[in-house]
């Protein structure tokens, strides 16, 4: 991989491979951190709503959080169950909790964790995750931010060198 990257990127290959590696690590931490947060928040919501097996459902939410539509499968099912049990108020609560807390945490927490680990702007990571998932599916969660990170660092390095070259030319 290093030899192939060296042929394409020249002396910057090692740095770009490090950027890609750090980004992939950050994405993994982002996925696991977000899954943990979603599982805990789902468990809390299930406990408040009085859903039996709240801890088990929270754990299931944790495991299904790595799949883009995983958590709604759990909390929406709990919402429907509450409705059919006659707990309409708790069903409304669970539906709102699922939409506004459990599902939205994925859209904000994951890019924050990834951007901190990869030293990229939040908006770039957010767009990378979103575009990657839309383009490549689940694997796009990794590919989108990685491609954007490498492109961002290549562009930044190119601009830095062009600026430095411009300064030398004016002296």
Q: Could you characterize the architecture of this molecule?
A:
This protein is mainly alpha-helical and 171 residues long. It contains seven helices and no strands. Helix 1 packs across helix 2 (13-49) and helix 4 (70-84) packs antiparallel against helix 5. The longest helix is centred in the first third of the chain and has 37 residues, at 13-49. The two termini are 40 Å apart. The mean pLDDT is 82.
What is the averaged pLDDT score? 82
The main β sheet shows up as:
none
Rounded to the nearest angstrom, the distance between the terminal CA atoms is: 40 Å
- Strand tally is 0
Helix content: over 70%
In terms of quaternary structure, the protein is single chain
Rg over CA atoms, rounded to whole Å, is 21 Å
Q: What form results from the Cα inertia axes?
A: elongated
The residue ranges in which pLDDT falls below 50 over 5 or more consecutive positions are: none
Secondary-structure content class: mainly alpha
- β-strand percent reads under 5%
Number of helices: 7
Order of helices and strands: HHHHHHH
How would you briefly describe this protein structure?
It is built from seven helices and no strands. It is an all-alpha fold.
Topology:
Elements: H1 2-9, H2 13-49, H3 54-64, H4 70-84, H5 88-118, H6 122-136, H7 140-170
What descriptive keywords fit this protein?
single chain; 171 residues; mainly alpha
């Amino acid at each position: 991989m290093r030899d192939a990257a060296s042929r394409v990127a020249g002396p910057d290959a090692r740095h770009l491979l490090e950027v890609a590696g750090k980004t992939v690590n950050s994405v993994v931490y982002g996925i696991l951190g977000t899954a943990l947060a979603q599982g805990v928040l789902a468990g809390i919501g299930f406990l408040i709503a009085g859903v039996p097996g709240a801890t088990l459902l929270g754990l299931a939410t944790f495991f299904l959080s790595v799949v883009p539509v995983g958590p709604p499968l759990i909390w929406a099912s709990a919402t429907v169950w509450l409705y059919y049990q006659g707990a309409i108020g708790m069903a409304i609560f669970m539906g709102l909790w699922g939409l506004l807390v459990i599902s939205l945490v994925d859209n904000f927490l994951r890019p924050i964790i990834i951007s901190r680990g990869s030293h990229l702007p939040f908006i770039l990571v957010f767009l990378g995750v979103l575009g990657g998932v839309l383009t490549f599916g689940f694997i796009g969660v990794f590919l989108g931010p990685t491609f954007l990170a490498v492109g961002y660092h290549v562009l930044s390095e190119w601009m830095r060198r062009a600026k430095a070259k411009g300064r030398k030319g004016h002296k």
